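User:
Hi there, any thoughts?
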Amino acid sequence: MEQDKALGTVGHIRMDFGHNGKEFWHTWWPHNEDQLNTQEFKDELQTIVDTLRTDGPLKDLTAMRSFCAQNGGAITKDGCSFGYVVETDRYRYCLRCTSSPGDYQGYLYCYDKQQQELAHQVKLVGRVTYADGTKQEFRFLYKGIIINHNKNRANLH
């Protein structure tokens, strides 16, 4: 997906605590054809998840409920889902907690911040010099917006 590329999405983990609220079931869903899933990322992700499972909202369903009640961060009108962000030098982790039995209780989306920066750079796609000496550059931004720059002005198209 183009949006995954622009966001630098490495992938996401879907989690639940099982029938008794004390288990930890999870599934990894790669994004961007698994190209950003490097060993560096895997090591950091393991550390993040281990930390959240040891003394955070991913320990079990009771710990998640307690964490959400103490820290707020509701992201839905009904107050059933909560959102938190963990940032490191290279990655951004967005955790959605839903402490209802029967649902998946957690989704952890993982983003490569360096890839986000690269995807949002303005890219030169063409340059024209007219007979009268006027110069014009054509640049491309994400989502197909072309910016025409010339000596005197910039126009969005």
